[in-house]
Every structure is written in structure tokens, then in C-alpha cells.
Amino acid sequence: MSLAPMTVAIEPAAAEQKPRTGGLPRWAGPALGLLLPLTLAVGWELAVRAGWSDGRLVPPPSVIYATFAELAETGELQRHALATLARVLAGFGIGVVTGTVFGAVTGYSAILRQLLDPSLQALRAIPSIAWVPLFILWLGIFEASKVTLIAVGVFFPVYLGVMGAVMSVDRKIVEVGRVFRLSGIQMVRRILLPAVLPAYVIALRSGLGLGWMFVVAAEFMGASEGLGFLLVDGQQLGKPAQIVAAIVAFAVIGKTTDWIVVGLTAPFLRWEDRARMGGN
Predict the structure, then answer these.
(1) 257-271 burial string, b = 16+ CB within 10 Å, else e?
(2) Do residues 229 and 161 make contact, with C-beta atoms less than 8 angstroms apart?
């Protein structure tokens, strides 16, 4: 007799937990994200064809596409894109490892935070371009200086994200782990990592975005290949279509790498119970 009310009370709650079947299909998200840039591109193409602009300084999409096709046919597009991608991935890896380590230790230890964080925050305020002459002097104009500059750009958002996530772990869930007498490894695996991981993924994406920004400054340091080299070459030779094509290549490859990070980390975040805003 005492179980009947409990059963009645649980059934509505269980019904609320059923996944929603409405809303946009899975493929509609990326398609919706392409709507704005495609609309702008078509609008600019029509404006140039209608004679509202000569399209000399800002070429229409048809000219940019022809430039892409020409660069791809000669193999330059692939060579420059792969060179830039390799630099970003190398700098991203170094920046993530160092940023994660420093963020974890400063977030966990108040003494280390007071010792290291003021200096790191001061270094974070230095503009990226200010590091260029120093890295050239220390490491030369070859790959080491470029990768190091990118790693510096990646380091700070990862460091801040990890430190903030570790510091914001709820004390109550840590106490629950102690009550259940979890070992140190179990505490990290079952409590700390799930608590830190959502903020860590955001820090990774922020660091990756800054890595793509810093690679442009890095490739200004005497690079003979890379998308940054295409920018400089287009500026020196007066080729606005090549400049815009390089910018579009940065945007496409950068967003693709961001999608990859999101896709690789999504399985580790399935446990999250997120609010669905907007009715989707």
C-alpha cells in the first residue's frame, strides 16, 4: 500500500526525462550556420553584377572562387594551407599541454597561484606582435619561432580556463567523494574531471581560435609558405582576390578544426543535463 503513492509520483517525473523528438533535425544546425555567409556572398555577387560596385577592392565570390581554383590547380593552395595547419597544430599541442599543467597547479594550490598568476597575467597583456622580434632574436626566423608564438597564443586561454574551472569545483561534491572514501585517482576520475571538463573544452576552443589568429603574425616572420604568406604576397602584388581567398581559407580551415574539437570532446560531455533554450 505504501508503494502505490511513490509509483504515482515517479511516473510523471520519468515522463519529463524522455528526450524531445521535436525541433530541428540534426543536419539543420550546420545548414543554418551557413545561411548568413551564403546570403552575404550572393548579395555581394548580385551587387557587383548590377554595377553598384566595381568589385576591385572587395572581389565578388565568383572572382574569389576562380582564384581558389587557380591556386588549387597549381598546388599552391594545398601547400600553403598544409604549412599553416601544421604550425597551428604544433603550437596548439604545446600550448594546451603547458596551459593545462600551469592552470591545474595554480587552480589547486593557493600558494602557487599567488606566486605564478601575477606574472602570467602580466605576460598575457603583451600584444602578440611584441613577441615577434624577441622570438626571431632567440629562435631565428624558421619554424621554432613561429610555433612558439602560436603556443603563446594558445597557452593563456587554456591556462585561465583550467585554473578557473579547478577553482570553481563545488566543495560539496568533493566532500561527497570523501564521504564515500574515494581514492585520489577515483576522486579525480569521477568528480574533478567531470566538473572541470565542460569549461576545459571551452578553453580548448578559445585557445584554438587564438592559435589561428597568432599564426598570421607568426607567418609574417619571414615565412616562404603558408596562408599568411599568401596574404603578404597578395598585398605586395596588389591582388585583393588572393588576399580575400586567403582570409576565406583561414575561416574555413579554422572552423573545421573547431568542429573537430567539438566532435572529439562531445562523447565525454554526454552526462551533462543542459537546459534547452528557445524550444529546440
Answers:
(1) beeeeeeebeeeeee
(2) no
| Residue 242 contacts residue 233 (beta carbons within 8 Å) | yes
Question: Could you tell me the pTM of the whole model?
Answer: 0.81
> How deeply is 83 buried, as exposed, middle or buried, from its count of CB atoms within 10 A (0-12, 13-18, 19+)?
buried
Which triple of cell numbers denotes residue 102? 600551469
Nearest to 248 by CA among 88, 69, 93: 69
Is the pLDDT assigned to residue 6 strictly greater than 50?
A: no
Alpha helices in the chain (DSSP H): 3-16, 28-49, 61-74, 76-108, 110-124, 128-139, 143-167, 171-179, 184-187, 193-219, 227-236, 240-265
Amino acid at 267: P
Q: Which CATH class, in words, describes the domain spanning 61-270? A: mainly alpha
Quick check: 13 pLDDT over 60? no
Q: How far out from the chain centre does Cα 34 lie?
A: 18
Q: pLDDT for 203-216, tens place per residue?
A: 999 999 999 999 98
In Å, what is the CA distance from 260 to each residue of 120, 186, 254, 257, 266?
29, 29, 10, 5, 10
Q: What is the DSSP letter of 278?
A: G
- Give the tens place of pLDDT for each residue, 234-276: 988 888 999 999 999 999 999 999 999 999 988 887 776 665 6
Longest dimension (CA), the chain: 87
What is 244-256 written as a DSSP string? Answer: HHHHHHHHHHHHH
**Contact (Cβ atoms closer than 8 angstroms) between residue 160 and residue 204:** no
For residues 80, 83, 86, 87, the Cα torsion angle rounded to the nearest 10 degrees is: -110
